[in-house]
Amino acid sequence: MTILTALLDEGGPIPAHRPFPRALVREATWQRAIGHLASGELTLLSVWGDVGHVHMALLEDEDHRIAVLTLPCPDGTYPAIGQTHPPAIRLERAIRDLFGYDPVGLPDPRGWLDHRDGTAYAFLPVEGEGLHQIPVGPVHAGIIEPGHFRFTCDGETVVRLEQRLGYVHKGVDELFSGAPLDRAARLACRVSGDSAAALGLGFARAVEAALGVVPPPRAVWLRALMAEMERVANHLGDFGAICNDASFTIIMAHCAVLRERMLRAAHDAFGHRLIMDRIVPGGVTMDLDEANRTAIAALADDVRKKFTALTLLYDRTASLQDRTVTTGILKPELARQFGAGGYVGRASGRAFDSRKHPGYAPYDSLSFEVPVLTEGDVNARVWIRVREIGQSLNLIEQILRDMPEGDIQTVVPAGSGEGMSLTETFRGDVLVWLRLNGGVVDRCHVRDASWFQWPLLEAVIEGNIVADFPLCNKSFNCSYSGHDL
Fold first, then answer.
1. Which of 71, 286, 316, 448 is in the most buried spot, having the most CB atoms within 10 Å?
2. Can you give the pLDDT at residue 371?
3. What is the pLDDT of residue 413?
C-alpha cells in the first residue's frame, strides 16, 4: 500500500472530485501527512483555503500518484504544515491573509499578500560585525512588476536575502468566485500573462475533469502547439536577458528578434501575441490554416539554425562562463524538498515534468525528452532552457505534421463538480483546482510554479556577490503576478 493510499483510506472520499482522489480527513491524518512531507516521502503540490476547510495536494514521487486531503477547521485553526515543512510557509501565510485561518505552529507570524495595515514590515534580523543592508525595490529600474529585496551584506558578499512580495495582490481567488466559465477562463489567462496559454490550458483541463468533458482531438493538439510556441518565446527571452545581465548584449539582441518572430507567428495564427483567451473549456477558439501551418514550420526550422549559433557563441565566450558557472548554486536536496519545477528544478537534478507525469494528451503521443542537469548554477539553468528550446521545436514540428483533422470545440454543460489539473508552463508545473456549481465557479485556486521557486532564490544568492544577483534572479525568472494572487 502506498503512502497516499493509506492516508486516503483514513478519510472519507469525495466522489465528485476528478481525476485525482480527494478525501475529508481528521487532524491525526493531516499530521501524518505533514510528517511524510517533512521526511521527504511526499512532495507538496499546494495548500489553499476554502470555506470552513483547508486543502493539501500531495505528490508521491515514486509512482507519481496525486491526491488531495481536506481538513475541516470550524474554529478557524489547523495544524501548520510549515512548522516542519518550509515550502508551505508562504502559502500558509497567504491563507491567513485571505481566509483568516490561523495555521497553528507556523514559525512566521507576519502577513504575506495583504499590505493594507500600513505597518512597517519586520524583516528578519541578522547579527554580525560590519554588516550593512541594501534595499532594492519595490520599484525597479525596468518595466517589471514590483517586489522588495532586502540584502544584508558583508562587503560585497550577500549574507542574507529576504524578499517581500504581494505588491500586485489583486484578489484573484475572490474574482474567480461566482464567475461564469467564460469570464473565469479569461481571468485564468491573466494570472501571469507570460504563461497565458499554459494557464488557460490548466483551467480548461480542470473544468473538463470536473464535468467529464472530452475536448476534440484536434483541439488537444492545437493546445499543445500554442503551449510550445509560448515556451520557446519565453525561453528565448530569458536566454538573451541572462546574457545581457552579464554585459553580453549581442546575444540578447538576436534572441529578441527570434522571440519577436515567434510572437508575431502566434498573432498571425491565433490572433494574439500571447495566445490569450484562445484555450477555453471544451477546446480552442481558433483553428490553424494551411498558410500559418507552413509559416510556423519554416519559423521553427529557422529558429533552430540561428539559435544553435547563439548557443555556440555563449559556450565559447569565456567572460560569460566566468559569470554564470558556479554562480547561484541550488543544491539538489533543496530543489527536491521544495518540489521545484521547470528549469529551476531540472538544473538541480529534479526530473519532474507534468507533461510526462502524471501526463496529459497529446504528449503521450509525442516524442520528447526532459533535460536534467545536477550542477544547479546559473549556467545549468541556461542550458536547461537551451535544450528545452530544442525539444519544443521538435514538438512543434511533430504537432504540425501529425495533428488530426476535425472539430476544435465541444459543448461544455452548465454542470457541477470538482476538478484539478497539473499543467506544464515554461516555468514549471501549475496547479489549478476548482469547484463548479451549475456552470459557475464556486471556488478556484491557482498555484503558479513561482510559489516554490521564489524562496529558493533567497538560498542561492547567499555567499555570492551583490553584482551577481541580477544573473541569479533572471536565471529563475519567477513571476510576481502569478505569485501575488
1. 448
2. 98
3. 95
The pLDDT, as a whole number, for residue 163 is 96
Nearest Cα residue to 51 out of 188, 193, 178: 178
- The pLDDT value recorded for residue 114 is 81
Q: Is the dihedral of CA 194, 198, 201, 203 positive or negative?
A: negative
pTM of the predicted model, to two decimals? 0.96
- The predicted pLDDT at position 273 comes to 97
What pLDDT is attached to residue 129?
A: 87
Report whether 24 contacts 12 (CB < 8 A). Answer: yes
CA 316 to chain centre: 32
190 and 71 together in one domain: no
pLDDT confidence of residue 183 = 97
Read out DSSP for 312-379?
HHHHT-HHHHHHHTTSSPPPHHHHHHTT--HHHHHTTT----TIIIII-TTGGGS-------S--SHH
Is residue 112 one of the residues assigned to a domain? Answer: no
pLDDT of residue 141: 78
Residue 473 falls inside a structural domain: no
Q: Measured between alpha carbons, how far is 460 from 463 in angstroms, rounded to an integer?
A: 8
Would you state the cell numbers that stand for residue 450, as one nine-digit string? 513561482
266's CB contacts (< 8 A; 6+ apart) are: 226, 229, 230, 233, 272, 273, 274, 275
Give CA angle at 293 (271, 412), nearest 5°.
55
pLDDT < 50 positions in the chain: none
Confirm whether 474 is domain-assigned: no
pLDDT (tens digit per residue) in 436-455: 999 999 999 999 999 999 99
Query: Does 311 lie in the same domain as 209?
Result: yes
Cβ–Cβ under 8 Å, residues 302 and 293 = no
Q: Which domain holds residue 264?
A: 178-445
Q: Are residues 198 and 320 in the same domain?
A: yes
Q: Give the separation between CA 346 and CA 376, rounded to whole angstroms.
A: 8
Which of 104, 137, 170 is the endpoint of a domain?
Answer: 104
